[in-house]
Amino acid sequence: MSDRVRLAVTLGDPRGIGPEITAAALARGVDAEVTLVGAKEQITPINAQHHVGVGSWKPRRGAVGARSAEAGLIAGRAVEHAARMALAGEVDAIVTAPAEKHALHLAGFPWPGHTEWLAHLAGDVDVAMMLASDRLRVVLVTTHVPFRDVPLLLTTDRIVRTGEVTRTALRDWFGIAEPRLALCALNPHAGEQGLFGDEESRILGPAAKALGAAGPIPADTVFVRAMRGEFDAVLAPYHDVGMTAIKVASFGSGVNVTLGLPFVRTSPDHGTALDIAGTGVADPGSMHAALTLAVTLAERSRSR
Is 297 exposed, middle or buried (0-12, 13-18, 19+ CB in 10 A)? Predict the structure, then answer.
């Protein structure tokens, strides 16, 4: 085995900023052996040891829907190829540039996001979506679902399983011997003793007790307390409450980490930014942070 961490880096949607932020992030320097996976024409200008082309993409006119599906197919093939490499032990970690979910769906990839998709490819394992920075770590209990579905999905069992995946990753990947977890409340003021909702007493409270976690703590204080060093990670009951906290705290330097996989996977904390692709203004900071964190976590995983 090479002493250097081996990364497979997918370039994401070929219409978006993925190729350019990957090139810029790699130019900043990453101590790893890198394999790029994506559209052949976009890989060529980027300096990396190994290349895997999964399709051809050339700027040309065409129906918006057709071009979206074409872009989604390239992005989807790249993710599946990188996952196969990781599962086969050919790379230690994968880093995924942003892909548009609508385009992936048009191309026949039905998953709501990379997190659920990679969990399926790895054998339908329990996973959790973490957003991490040097200031805050947030883990989502429910991810890309309509808000109206959150109360149906937010069960004590789901919270406990997410917390267990989080604790294991904090210990094994982040090197925290005794992780301190906090559970963010669902309702204002944590329900105010049932006045604003009873999910805290019926669902979240029992989950926190089972996990040995603090909470449920109202959303307007739990993230502040975590940023002050009181907790190692906060479990957020739904997507936007957790994502808002991490992006306010660390936009541009946060990293998405999929916990629970048999390999490390990271990605930047933003989307495809189709509107600014090719203009040269896209910030590669989060992509570089994703590459750097993938190396760190993979090194720690390999040393266990």
Answer: buried
